[in-house]
Amino acid sequence: MLKEKKVQIVSDLADDLSRSTAVIATNYQGLVAKQMAELRNALAKAGVAYHVVKNTLAYRAADQANKPQLKDIIEGPVALALGYDDAVSAVKALNQYIKSTGLPLQVRGGLLGNQILLEEELISLASLPPRAVLIARLIGQLQAPVSSLHNILSFPLRGLTTVLQNRAQTSKE
Fold first, then answer.
1. How far apart, in whole angstroms, are the C-alpha atoms of residue 33 and residue 39?
2. Is residue 66 left, alpha or beta, with left meaning phi > 0 and alpha meaning psi from -120 to 50?
3. What does the pLDDT look like over 7-23, one tens digit per residue?
4. How far are the Cα atoms of 150, 164, 169 from residue 158, in angstroms, in the given order?
5. 96 three-state secondary structure
6. Distance CA 153, CA 149 (A)
7. Distance separating alpha carbons of residues 6 and 11, to the nearest angstrom
8. Is residue 62 within 8 Å of 131, Cβ to Cβ?
9. Distance CA 122, CA 73 (A)
10. Long-range contacts of 70-77 (CB under 8 A, 24+ apart)
11. pLDDT tens, 23-76?
12. Own/partner pairs for 96-104, CB < 8 Å, 24+ apart?
């Protein structure tokens, strides 16, 4: 490979790594070209890029992107799945595709921000509910104490209202 081409590949990969919120390293061995194309298409629909890279070029790109932790999960033939928007959606898309197709694709690890995640941690991350559901649950939890306080504070007033209504009914009779 020409030196200029390698420099361009490293530069492009470093740019992609610096923009990414999640990087997932996978072992792609055992996939035929058709399966690899289907995987890339499925991940692209979820906003995830999938690149097969040489380790030495990936190491250089990781250094340029200020993500040296990535070197710890790159070993042997590796492909990188890069998520740009929501970090969890990248993990979910990859995990869902692996489960639905039964491909011999193995997740080696990932980088979420600057923290390395093991395969088990990535799988548990993929099992999280969608972001909208988590936000709704949080809002519900935040509203529960306010609702309870409202009920506690309004109880004496409701009791007084009930007593006065009963008193007014008994005086009419």
1. 10
2. left
3. 888 888 888 888 888 88
4. 12, 10, 16
5. helix
6. 6
7. 8
8. no
9. 13
10. 70/17, 70/23, 70/25, 70/111, 72/109, 72/116, 73/25, 73/108, 73/109, 73/110, 73/111, 73/116, 74/25, 75/108, 76/27, 77/27, 77/28, 77/29, 77/52
11. 888 888 878 888 888 888 888 888 888 888 888 888 898 888 888 888 888 888
12. 96/126, 97/39, 97/42, 97/43, 101/35, 101/38, 103/30, 103/31, 103/35, 103/39, 104/29, 104/30, 104/31
Identify whether the C-beta of residue 100 lies closer than 8 Å to the C-beta of residue 39. Answer: no
Tokens of 76: 């042997």
